[in-house]
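This section describes the prediction task in plain terms. A model, or a person checking by hand, is given the sequence of a single protein chain and must write out its three-dimensional structure as a string of tokens. No templates, partner chains or ligands are provided. The sample shown here is typical of the held-out split.
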Amino acid sequence: MDATSKKNAIIAPWPKQGLSEHVRAAPAPVEPRPSRDEAEAAVRTLIAYAGDDPGREGLLETPKRVIGAYEEIFQGYRECPVEVLDRTFGEIGSYDDFVLVRDISFNSHCEHHMMPFYGKAHVAYRPVERVVGLSKLARLVDIYAHRLQTQEHLTSQVTTAIDEILRPRGVAVMIEAEHMCMSLRGVSKPGSQTVTTQFTGSFRDDPTEQVRFMTMVRGGQR
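The expected answer:
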């Protein structure tokens, strides 16, 4: 970013009022939060429940590794969405169409079975005078994805955060994902995709905008 762009960037002191709870702050931690030792003990219990010996050589360090992985996989519980979209830029000239970031890869975990689901998010918004850095939209998806989720809730949260923070003319979000709780258990249908969408503002009110959004998303999937 050059000096002029930095000068014209605005870091907004977003008011907490008027924002949804999941937008204005990271989730409050559970109190009292279990200690790391307690968490590792819980992993040993699950290993034993599965039928293996948590004391055998190959599994001795597994509880420590699992908890370390959890800290990374679920880091979204320690991050605040409003802080990701807090800087906007006004040098957009006469641009008045929507901005689309397509094929944002993500991974998350189903809150029903704690099994992974993963896929791509496509996010568009129609800005009013100012735009946000493109990488911030991908970061926003990651924040919500790195929590226990349903795909429907993930779609709604991403849409709401952009709508409430940036206050654009409209928001469009489409998420496509494969769920391991369907692929590896239950009906066992690997490769099946779940698709969710949500639209606000101009995207919700004008079907032609929805068609343009979908066409641009599908146009890149050769």
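For orientation: The CA atoms of residues 1 and 7 lie 10 Å apart.
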